[in-house]
Amino acid sequence: MAKRLSAEQYLAIGYLAQPKRAGMTMEEVANECGVARKTIYEWKKLPHFDAELKRQIQLSVSDRVPDVIDAMVRTSVSEGNAAAAKLILQVAGMLTDKVEVETKSATEIPDIDELKRMVAEMDV
After folding, report:
1. Rounded to an integer, what distance in angstroms lies between the CA atom of residue 32 and that of residue 10?
2. Which residues form the domain of 78?
3. Which residue in 28, 15, 3 sits closest to 56, CA to CA?
């Protein structure tokens, strides 16, 4: 059974998921949640707390991704930054990782009669 988060944990996640913790120190976040600062650090070690925090961070930045990519495009063009250009193309699905292709040697290729037999079997 999945572990449930407490109201205090959800409140902490709400602050922690914001840029710069909503301008708060960890001590202030803990005070807002009614717990000790050490407790927040202990929560961050819990897999279910960490997973929810990451989910909330993704939700909070997803609307800003197009702006980030636009800024990266402008910067990569103006500065001639090849690494940024590569990343942009990968994000756009226009550049993939290197793919290794293995070829067979000539000794492994069947002769023409064998190929005809294999094609004839496919037609059945």
Report:
1. 12
2. 65-124
3. 15
| Maximum Cα–Cα distance across the chain | 81
Q: Same domain for 49 and 76?
A: no
By the 10 Å C-beta count (0-12 exposed, 13-18 middle, 19+ buried), 29 is classed as: buried
**Same-domain pairing of 56 and 73:** no
**Quick one: tokens of 68?**
């980030």
pLDDT tens, residue by residue, 41-77: 999 999 999 999 999 999 888 888 888 888 888 888 8
CA dist 36 and 74 (Å) reads: 44
Closest CA to 76 of 63, 99, 92: 92
